[in-house]
Amino acid sequence: MKMLGMDERTVTSNPNDNGEGKMKKKPKVVVITGPTASGKSKLAVDLASLFPIEVINADSMQVYRGLDVLTNKIPFSQQNGVPHHLLGSISPNVEFTAKAFRDSAIPIIDDILDRNHLPVIVGGTNYYIQALVSPFLLDDLAEDMNESCLDDLPGTTQCDISFIAENDSLNDSYDLLKDIDPVAANRIHPNNHRKINQYISLYARTGVLPSKVFQGKAAENWGQVDNLRYDCCFICVDASLPVLDKYVEQRVDCMMDAGLLNEVYAIYNLEADYTRGLRQAIGVREFEPLLKTCVVEDIYKKEKELTGSSTEKGETLLDSNLREWLISSSDSKSIILLEEAIEKVKVNTRRLVRRQKRMLNRLQTLFGWNIHYVDSTESISRKSEEVWAGQVVESAMKIIRSFLSENESLTSTVELSNMTGMKIIQRDLWTRYICNACGDRVLRGSHEWEQHKQGRGHRKRVSSLNRKARGLTFVEQKLEYSECN
C-alpha cells in the first residue's frame, strides 16, 4: 500500500554516511487554531510586528471568493501588509477538499520558508490542518488501493456489497454509513456529504470497512505527533463558552447590519447544490425558507418598480440593506422567517464552536498534539485592546520565541515589521546591549536582550518612564519601548 512520505525537504542523503540517509530537522511551522470568534486572525496580524510572518488561511469557507461578510474574512485594510495566502482565492462553486488544501498549502509553505519567513497556518477548520501536517490521508489510500492490497484486511463480505448496491440511492446518507461502519461515521460530521460518499464508495468497491483502513500501521502513523510532516507549534486561541456564545450572537447581528442577507440573496439559486462549495457555509441555508417563499417575489416586484420594467434576479439588486427593508415592510410572515433564520445562524454557529473545541481536545488526547492555549476570554468580554495585548499576544509571542529558539535559519533574524519595511535585529552572541531604564544593566547577545525586554521588571520601569505608552496599541508600545532604550 502506497503512503505519502514526509516532505522531501526533510530528508537528505549524505555521501559519507555509507548510503544511510540522515534526517534533517523538519521545517518549523506555527499553527494558530481555535473556535470561531476567538481572535485567530487578529492574533496572526499582531504577531507579524514581532516575527517575519506569512499567513496561510485554513478556514474551509474563507478560502472561497465571495460572502466576505458572512465568512468574516479579515479585510485587506486590517491585514496590515501581512501576506495572506488561500484567502478568498478559490471558486465558490468547487469542492475544496482537505486534500486540495494540503496540496495547495505545501508549495506555499516551501516558498515562505525559502524567503526565510515563518509560515503561520490560521483557521478553525481542524481537518484542513490535520490533512496538512499528517503524512497521508484516507483520500490517498483510497486512490492507491487495489484488490491485492485489500485481501488481508478484515470486513469483506459479498452480502455487504450487495446491500450497498441495493441502497445505492442512499449512498449520501449518514444513517446508512452508521449502519455499515459506525466507527467511520463517528469520525466525520453528518453534513460532510463528500466524505460520507467517499467512505461508502470505498466500502461498496472493496467491501472493506473504512475504519479498518485506519487500523494497524495506518492508525499508528496518521496524525500522530511523532510522524507529522512539519515541526509544528500549535497555538489555540480559546475563550469560555458563555463569552463566546454571547460574542457570536453579537457578531451575527453585526453581520446582518453589514449586509449579510444581501450577500446570501446575491448567490441564492433554487437549483443550487447547498452541500458543495461556498454554499455550505453557516448562514446560507438558514435563509432558504425566507428567500424561497415570499421574499424573492417581493424583491422582484420592488426591482420592477425601481426600473420600470421586468428584470431577472441579480440584474438590479436593492441598494439598501435587505434586512432593514424587510423589517420596514408590512409582511409579518417575512419578518418571522427572518428572525427564525437569524436565530438558526446563531444556534448553528454556537454548535460549530463546540465541535471545534471537541476536535481540538481529540487531537490533543488521541494524537498527542502539544497544543498551547492562550485565553482570550477577558479581552473579548471587556473589549479591551490592552488586555488582548498583554494576555493573548504576549503569551503567543513567548510560545513562538521558545519554539524558534532551536531553529538556526529563522532565529538568525527577528524582523519587526511596520507596514512598509522591517527592522532586522541580528541574533548573535557578541553584541552588547545596555538597558538605561534598568540602571545601565549590560546584556550580552540579542537573545539575552530580547528575554530581558520581555521581563516584568523591565516593562514596569519602561512604563513608568513613559506613561503615555499605556494608551498606545501593542505595536506602538513596542516601538516606543525600543525608542526609549
UniProtKB/TrEMBL annotation:
Transferase is among the record's keywords: yes
Compositionally skewed regions (Basic and acidic residues) per UniProt: 1-10
Domain of life: Eukaryota
Database matches in SUPFAM superfamilies: P-loop containing nucleoside triphosphate hydrolases
Region spans: Disordered: 1-24
Any one cellular-component term (Gene Ontology): mitochondrion
UniProt record, GO biological process: cytokinin biosynthetic process; tRNA modification
The family this protein is said to belong to: Belongs to the IPP transferase family.
Entries under PANTHER family matching the protein: TRNA DIMETHYLALLYLTRANSFERASE (PTHR11088), TRNA DIMETHYLALLYLTRANSFERASE 2 (PTHR11088:SF82)
Protein name per UniProt: tRNA dimethylallyltransferase 2
Origin species: Lupinus luteus (European yellow lupine)
